[in-house]
Amino acid sequence: MPQLPSERGPAPVGVKTLEVRDDARAGRTLPVEVWYPAEESHRGQDLDAATLDRFEIAAGLPEMSQQAVRGARPAAGSFPLVFFSHGATSHRRSSAELLTHLASHGYVVASADHVGNTIGDLVHDLQGGRERGEARMTEMDASAANRPLDAVLVLDTLLGGADEEIAPLVDATRVGTCGVSFGGWTSLALNCIDSRPRASFPIVPAWGPGPLKTEALSALVRLEDWGRPLPTFVLAAERDALILLPALRDLHAKLSAPKRMAVLRNAGHVHFVDGAERRHEELRTMWASGQLPITDPDIDFAAVAEASRPFSELCPAAHGAAVVKALCLAHMDAHLKDDPQAANWLAGDLAAEFAAQGIDLEAV
Fold first, then answer.
1. Cα(183)–Cα(173) distance, rounded to whole angstroms?
2. Which of 31, 196, 243, 342 could bridge across to 333 with cysteines, CB 3.0–4.6 Å?
3. 37 near 106, Cβ under 8 Å?
4. Distance of CA 197 to the CA centre of its chain
């Protein structure tokens, strides 16, 4: 682990897209993005605007890019596998900065679109108008049932050798999970039904009482069903208007050791995803205007918009990126690579480490 775990690692990063199908769920089919350490011959190509990967997340939305080379030849070796789950109405590449960061440090990383709960589905709803609100809530309930099974499907596919190029890269004995918001909840729920994960890193996970009725989600996860010690690091945002900080403190208190928690002060719900400032203001506008195609009398989106302060009043997006990259990498290094340096760093004074970088962090 480098002195600053938020610094990109030594390996160039490759990326490919797979499609996985679950016949047991009526042929449910998911696109899956896989990032991996690439051959040395690709050095610099993942950072060069002329050769890095570009993609469209939904029809009509602007082209985006990620620091990876599509179809790059894989590096030799066997690497831990990390499964990532995106948030509600998001997409599999929503945290590409974090996921390519992990790959550059020697991880294979996989993230699926949770079909029915992606930004493409949201765009479809917006084009259809508010009459789809009731259906969207139904699909959110369905997504809570599907998401953990989606994760199992991806792990089964990659660990079962279905992809001949990726299979030799994956160390099946070293598996971790992480996710953001609904995806953070997914990583917790997965641990109830799958014993393969050895480390968990939920980021602002949907949990406990809150404006979006997330207590219904936490009721679906019985932490005692994990049935094993599972090192878990909970990352929270102090001014999160969606997932309330007291709920995540309660989650942390209920977890069995080994566990840690960190709170980025003066940060909002989306501080840990790519394009945090843009995404934050898009959501505030949508909530305040009533454009969101969800009609539920128990959810006051205007109040959520008011509680979600303008991004200019919050900490810089770069602070969220530095924190999530450093802590997630160190957690995975400590528990999937048995790296004593990473373990010692995590056990130390994290608040002081980040204060030296001008970042205000509470560590528990």
1. 23
2. 342
3. yes
4. 15
CA–CA gap between residue 38 and residue 76 (Å, rounded)? 8
At 130, is the pLDDT very low, low, confident or very high (cuts 50, 70, 90)?
very low
> Domain span at residue 341?
13-363
CA 164 to chain centre: 26
Q: Is residue 4 part of a domain?
A: no
Is the residue at 6 inside a domain?
no
Q: What are phi and psi of 3, to 5 degrees?
A: -60, -40
Q: Once rounded to an integer, what is the mean pLDDT over residues 198-203?
A: 99
CATH (domain of 353): 3.40.50.1820
Using a 10 angstrom Cβ sphere, with 0-12 exposed, 13-18 middle and 19 or more buried, the burial of residue 341 is middle
Query: Residues for the chain: how many in total?
Result: 364
Q: Return d(Cα 266, Cα 83) in angstroms, integer.
A: 28
How far is Cα of residue 195 from the mean position of the Cα atoms in its chain?
A: 20
Residue 94: both structure tokens together: 């929503």
On whether residue 205 sits in a domain, the answer given is: yes
Per DSSP, 118 falls in state: B
Dump strand ranges (E) for 23-101. Answer: 28-37, 53-56, 63-66, 69-70, 79-85
Question: What is the per-residue pLDDT for 2?
Answer: 43
Tell me whether strands 361-363 and 259-264 are parallel, antiparallel or unpaired: antiparallel
Structure tokens at 148: 């953990």
Question: Domain total for the chain?
Answer: 1
Give the strands of the sheet with 108-112, arranged side by side. 69-70, 13-22, 28-37, 108-112, 79-85, 170-180, 197-203, 232-237, 259-264, 361-363
**Residue at 175: amino acid letter:** V
Token pair belonging to 130: 């508010």
Give domain status of residue 130, yes or no. Answer: yes
Residues 6+ away with beta carbon under 8 Å from 344: none
Give per-residue pLDDT as tens, 163-175: 999 999 999 999 9
Taking the CA atoms of the chain, what radius of gyration do you get in angstroms?
19
Report the chain's terminal Cα–Cα distance, integer Å: 22
How far apart are alpha carbons 191 and 22 in whole angstroms? Answer: 20
